[in-house]
Specification:
The complex is a heterodimer of chains A (821) and B (292). In chain A, 31% of the residues lie in helices and 24% in strands. Chain A is α+β, with helices and mostly antiparallel strands and 821 residues long. Chain B is an all-alpha fold. The chains are: A alpha+beta (821), B mainly alpha (292). At the A-B interface, strand 32, strand 33, helix 17, helix 19 and strand 37 of A face strand 1, helix 1, helix 5, helix 6 and helix 7 of B.
């Protein structure tokens, strides 16, 4: 009978370590299992000397181990020491492959065949997952590695890189970069092209191939690994090459499969979903607990606190107050009545419909990302056309929505428990109406990320928001006089559709009769004129289309297709007609919209006859911008290269108004018909960069700008996630002398971003003086937020070449008409 | 086929206004506002000059001469401040485009203002020197707006989505290929290739840059040396094709540098002469008040 531990902790990241430390401190029998030969692999893999941040700063650290902002090496060093001091029972090189059994009696299988028994399991394995392994015979040999820390440390070797993604290509290029290292580098690609990698990387690889620095083997895969040799499966049969080292970069598998195989359910099918957890971090498999990044808490401090808490819970401590108590107390202090935190949480939990399913733990977590407000009767909560991406829920009281901008006295009430502001959240656009408190009211405001997480991970909340969203969207769009009851049928029959980029939603000549509302993404409208598609208009999220065929029973007069991946709400035409018949004002509105739109079409058709080339250019330009991903944008920097003299004053102005670093690269980017799309943030409607930011540092500001605040920890996720390559990671250079002392006395580097060498020299001086190495953080365009006068790049252009516009304004007929007149 | 909710333009146009995003060149800024102002001003000045009897004759010393002189001097100082405005990114609702627009038209108006101010009295003195310097600045400015209006398109067409950095990199890539392709060559042939590789593409003078006439181009010489008739896959054939790719890449860079130089070269007259003008103007004013 082997020894059975009280708890087995899997994964020695900050979460697992802190749990093990608590167990050791309590004298609880425990084992900490770590797959690699060192502790805390995720942090271990940070670049050398990385400055690790300890956010959120107002959260108290509750752990037996120390953690404060500092250099990676110091943090790992401290933990290594404390593991010794606290006598934590660690087992390295223990890769857990399977967990079976039930509470009180789990069997944990390790790679290599060993098993470990434990009464309870705590999973703190993070979200990195496992690299896909080389499955060819001999793949387990020592000279096969899955990671390349420093390409500079290998000399005189024959190295084969397997994998055709960015990681593989970057590794191959890194190894071949310095000819002095004298490595023979080969990269294998299973297919003929490199479809999964970034264009820049592929170009660089092909260049390296042409220069003979890297050998690229296409349609080739490894057949067998031998000592010093690799057998290849090529289109012309097998071939053996010399090979001293193999670097396998074939992607990694997220840990979800492993976790599910342990019997743990996730909150939804969604890729972003997390395991379902109880307030004590217990999963749907009793006895197994999940903490840390895997539980949805990617910040080190959270991870460590949870490690502590989960062991306290296991130890029977039910009185433990969460570490966030002081933060919540401070947050709720703004509310009237001096009630304790628990009472407010209880009230929100029971009153607010979308929160009903949440556990107290989830409630607390959600409130950390949210704010609470108390409004007096009549106070404005937000104004129409204000920019805002948060969602509100009414905890107590009610609000009035001013549905008619011309007459604020016409309002629709929203009562306790319901939500509002969700349109800004889902489509990332402006507020549709002004909302006031109808009585003294208490609201919870969820940040966009918190709300999206709630929707993704809590199906009931997701459904509730969805229905409300559709209802409100329709009410707002079709305007005055409609009440929720009028459109209930429409909402019930509504269907949400995902549309791929380029997919046609409505086809010219079609006989279908549905109306569509763009909920996310954007569409372009085209009409076939003389055998060629002609661009008619651009529709941003929040517009509707398809009513023409419904109202006059005609065939589809134009094609509507998605500019980017979009989401539309499909409404059956007859249900819409019924609502229209019953509501003369809606009817009027729809007819007016239809007339306006007909005029647009006719205008372009008539131009097509007389100014055919202008219309073709308009279509081609629109197509170019759409291909450039402008459909994602809410605000984009364009440069008219008929005017741009290449002075780079735009870049200099940007640098000079932002800590000395430019957030735009004028020359880079693509051009069509002298219209240039430089590399600069487009303030995407649904910013890809926001998706994976551990401290939620990326936000949308009042003017619609997407910006990164000072809580950025420099992890680089946003840089990788932005498809437009506009985020750079850099350290803020020291201040340079003022412009007048440059003009008159030649002091400092002059206007614009100082040269790399100047910055490096000054930084080294500063480092020598203070002993601190400045961290690199993510920087990107913030649309000159808070700078009176607006975007500096535009203001500083002497010729008017640089403009910042929203796509719907730039691609509008009005502009087209002005430019062809 | 569709409509955008009515409220959009309201918010969007408000924001676009804030961003000064109107798509108009500096020459036609605000529907030629500054051209109109400058023209009206010049016409009025000419009319007053034509219909006012000046005794004994018109010059800088009459009340009108003083008025125009003051306006002209202030204008010159303001025009010179563009150099600072351009580089001082202070907050506020100004746009450099509006400044440039006003600069150009008010600068042109100076021709009228200053000439009337002289009363057509010229001589070999500091006063006329100031006038001549001013005209030189203005003439260079006229050249400036001409190239600003004509060359950007060509700069754009020549760039073909490449940044300057990418052009340099492309040349570097060709050079590395050339260097390794030249390994098997004998000494004399290899020297021709190496001479091409060693020549600094930026090592030519301003005049060569502006004229685009690179007579000492070693790549061209090497190409002449490998005069052709080689098999496609022979060493010489490969060298020749790499050399002609190098020449094409150089040609793009040279056109780029030529256009950039043409867009900038006038500032090397415009700015230094502005400084000289400010000095001459000071002497002119001081001498008028102290020695008249
Ligand atoms: C580049 C970068 C920079 C960052 N910077 C910061 C920062 O400055 N501040 C901050 O607060 N956060 C930062 N983060 C986020 C933070 O590092 C992670 O979210 C955190 O480490 C997660 O901790 P964890 O304990 O949940 O998991 P991890 O730290 O990922 O640890 C998981 C451990 O489990 C092991 N493991 C996995 N599977 C198994 C298995 N089957 N059997 C045994 N062991 C296994 C792994 O080897 C690993 O050691 C950054 C992240 C990155 C990528
Ligand atoms: C006496 C009259 C003038 C003076 C003192 C003057 C002075 C200046 C100065 C100091 C600059 C700043 C250059 C820099 O720092 O880059 C400038 C720029 C410029 N000037 Fe003039 N100028 C005068 C007349 C004119 C005229 C008449 C024209 C046009 C017809 C003109 C066109 C320009 C242009 C196009 C710029 C460049 C703007 C830019 O690229 O930023 N100037 N001038
Ligand atoms: S950084 Fe990239 S993803 Fe984020 S808003 Fe800007 S363009 Fe979009
Ligand atoms: S808007 Fe401001 S931050 Fe953005 S690129 Fe222009 S100058 Fe830079
Ligand atoms: S400031 Fe204007 S003219 Fe100068 S480089 Fe930028 S866009 Fe071109």
């Amino acid at each position: 009978m082997p020894h059975r531990f009280r708890v087995a902790i899997v994964g020695s990241g900050p979460a697992g370590l802190s749990a093990a430390a608590r167990a050791a401190q309590l004298g609880m029998s425990h084992v900490l299992l770590e797959k690699t030969d060192h502790l805390s692999d995720t942090i271990y893999k940070y670049q050398k000397g990385k400055y690790v941040m300890a956010t959120p700063s107002n959260l108290v650290l509750r752990s037996d181990f120390d953690f404060d902002a500092g250099i990676r090496e110091d943090i790992l060093g401290t933990w290594d020491r404390q593991v010794e001091e606290c006598k934590v029972n660690v087992r390295l090189n223990a890769d857990v492959t399977k967990i079976t059994g039930t509470k009180g009696n789990f069997t944990i299988e390790l790679k290599g065949g060993d098993t470990i028994e434990a009464e309870a399991v705590v999973l703190g394995i993070g979200t990195q997952g496992n690299p896909n392994l080389l499955r060819a015979p001999g793949g387990e040999r020592k000279h096969v590695q899955y990671q390349l820390d420093d390409p500079g440390e290998y000399y005189d070797e024959h190295i084969t890189v397997i994998g055709s993604g960015d990681a593989g290509i970057e590794n191959a290029l890194g190894l071949a970069k310095d000819a002095k290292q004298n490595n023979i580098v080969t990269i294998l690609n299973r297919s003929a092209d490199f479809a999964r990698a970034k264009k820049g990387n592929v170009d660089a690889l092909i260049e390296a191939e042409q220069e003979g620095r890297v050998i690229v083997r296409r349609e080739t895969s490894p057949a067998e690994v031998k000592d010093g040799e690799l057998v290849l499966e090529t289109p012309n049969g097998q071939e053996t090459i010399r090979c001293d080292r193999i670097i396998a970069r074939m992607g990694s598998k997220p840990p979800r499969d492993f976790v599910e195989a342990c019997g743990i359910q996730f909150t939804s099918e969604d890729r972003d979903a997390f395991p379902q957890l109880s307030p004590s971090f217990e999963t749907t498999q009793p006895g197994i607990h999940v903490i840390g990044a895997l539980a949805g808490y990617p910040l080190i401090k959270h991870c460590m606190n949870q490690g502590y808490d989960v062991i306290e819970f296991l130890n029977g401590n039910s009185q433990l107050k969460p570490a966030d108590q002081p933060i919540l107390e401070e947050r709720f202090a703004a509310l009237p009545g001096n009630r304790p935190v628990e009472e407010w949480l209880e009230l929100f939990n029971t009153n607010i419909v979308i929160l009903r399913d949440l556990s107290p733990l989830q409630m607390r977590e959600l409130m950390l990302d949210s704010t609470v407000h108390s409004y007096r009767k009549g106070e404005v909560i937000f104004e129409r056309n204000a920019e805002g991406s948060s969602m509100f829920a009414i905890g107590q009281g009610s609000v009035a929505v001013e549905i008619n901008p011309a007459d604020p006295s016409i309002t629709v009430p929203i009562g306790t428990g319901s939500i509002f502001g969700e349109v800004g959240l889902i489509s990332g656009r402006k507020r549709g109406s002004t909302i006031r408190a109808a009585e003294d009211t208490i609201c919870v405001e969820f940040s966009r990320n918190a709300a999206l997480k709630l929707i993704a991970t809590n199906p009931a909340a997701g459904r509730a928001v969805n229905r409300i969203f559709i209802e409100r969207q329709l009410l707002q769009m079709f305007g005055s006089g409609l009440a929720p009851a009028d459109i209930a049928e429409l909402v019930d029959t509504a269907e949400v559709m995902q549309v791929r980029a380029g997919q046609k939603v409505v086809e010219e000549g079609g006989e279908d009769k549905d109306i569509f509302v763009i909920r996310r993404g954007s569409m372009i409208v085209e009409k076939d004129l003389g055998g060629k598609p002609v661009f008619l208009s651009y529709l941003p999220a929040g517009s509707y289309f398809g009513e023409m065929a419904v109202i006059d029973g005609s065939k589809r007069t134009a094609t509507v297709k998605a500019a980017i991946k979009s989401e539309v709400i499909k409404l059956p035409g007859d249900a819409f007609l019924k609502v229209m018949e019953a509501n003369p004002r809606l009817r009027e509105r729809a007819l007016a919209d239809m007339r306006a739109r007909r005029k647009t079409n006719q205008f372009i058709e008539s131009r097509k006859e007389s100014f055919s080339s202008a219309v073709d250019l308009y279509t081609a330009t629109a197509q170019f911008l759409i291909n450039e991903g402008i459909g994602d944008a809410t605000d984009v920097l364009l440069i008219d290269e008929k005017l741009c003299v290449g002075c780079d004053n735009c870049e200099k102005a940007c640098a000079d108004s932002h800590d000395g670093l430019s957030r735009l690269n004028r020359e880079a980017g693509t051009t069509y018909a002298h219209l240039h799309v430089p590399t600069s943030c487009r303030h995407c409607e649904h910013p890809h960069c926001m998706a994976d930011c551990p401290p939620n540092a990326i936000k949308r500001g009042v003017d619609g700008e997407v910006f990164i605040d000072e809580t950025c920890i420099g992890c680089g996720n946003c840089q990788r996630n932005c498809p437009y390559g506009v985020i750079r990671m850099d350290a803020k250079p020291p201040k340079k002398p003022g412009i007048l002392s440059w003009i008159f006395f030649g002091r400092g580097p002059g206007p614009g971003e100082p040269s790399y060498y100047w910055r490096k020299k000054k930084m080294e001086e500063a480092e020598a003086a203070t002993g601190k190495k400045p961290g690199k953080f993510a920087i990107k365009c913030d649309m000159c937020q808070g700078i009176a006068g607006g975007p500096a790049c535009v203001r500083a252009c002497p010729t008017g070449a640089a403009i910042r516009v929203s796509p719907e304004r730039f691609l509008s007929v009005t502009r087209f008409a002005e430019e062809t007149d | 086929m569709a409509s955008i909710p009515e409220d959009k333009p309201v918010g969007a146009s408000a924001i676009e206004q804030r961003r000064a995003a109107d798509h108009e060149s500096f020459l036609s800024h605000k529907r030629l506002r500054w051209l109109k102002i400058a023209t009206v001003f010049c016409l009025v000045a000419i009319l007053i000059y034509a219909f006012t009897p000046f005794e004994p004759r018109a010059n800088g010393g009459t009340w009108y001469g003083y008025t125009l002189g003051t306006i002209g001097a202030l204008l010159i100082v303001w025009l010179s401040l563009l150099g600072i405005r351009k580089r001082r990114m202070t907050e506020g609702h100004w746009s450099l485009k509006a400044w440039t627009s006003a600069h150009v038209y008010l600068g042109l108006a100076l021709i009228v203002i200053a000439t009337l101010h002289t009363g057509f009295q010229f001589g070999w003195n500091v006063h006329t020197l100031a006038y001549a310097l001013m005209m030189l600045v203005i003439v260079s400015g006229i050249y400036g707006i001409t190239v600003y209006a004509m060359l950007p398109q060509r700069l754009s067409d020549n760039r073909k989505d490449m940044t300057t950095e990418m052009m340099v990199e492309a040349l570097g890539a060709l050079d590395r290929q050339l260097a390794s392709a030249a390994q098997p060559l004998d000494r004399a042939d290899a020297d021709m290739v190496l001479a091409a590789l060693d020549q600094d593409p930026f090592g030519f003078g301003l005049w060569t840059r502006l004229s685009g006439n690179y007579r000492r181009c070693a790549t061209q010489k090497a190409l002449d040396h490998f005069s052709g008739g080689y098999a496609e896959d022979s060493v010489d054939g490969r060298i020749r094709s790499l050399l002609s790719r190098r020449r094409a890449q150089l040609a793009q860079m040279r056109r780029h540098m030529k256009l950039k130089a043409m867009l900038e070269v006038w500032l090397f007259v415009h700015i230094p002469v502005t400084i000289a003008l400010l000095a001459a103007l000071t002497v002119h004013i001081v001498s008028v008040f102290f020695y008249w």
